[in-house]
Amino acid sequence: MKRSRAFLSILGLLCLVASFALAGPPAEAAVPRKPITCGMTISTSMNLYLPRDLACPGSGLTIYSDYDNPDYVPKVNVDLRGHTLSGSGIGQGISAVGFPFKATLTVSNGRLKNWSLALQGDTDTRVKGVALVDNWTAFGCSGYCPADMVLIKNNEIGVIATEGEAVVRRSTFVGNEVGATVSYGSVLRVDRSLFLNNRVGMEGNTAGPQSASSTFVRNKIAVRVNVEFPEDDPQICAELTNPRFIRNGRDVVGPRC
Question: What is the pTM of this model?
Answer without folding.
Answer: 0.85
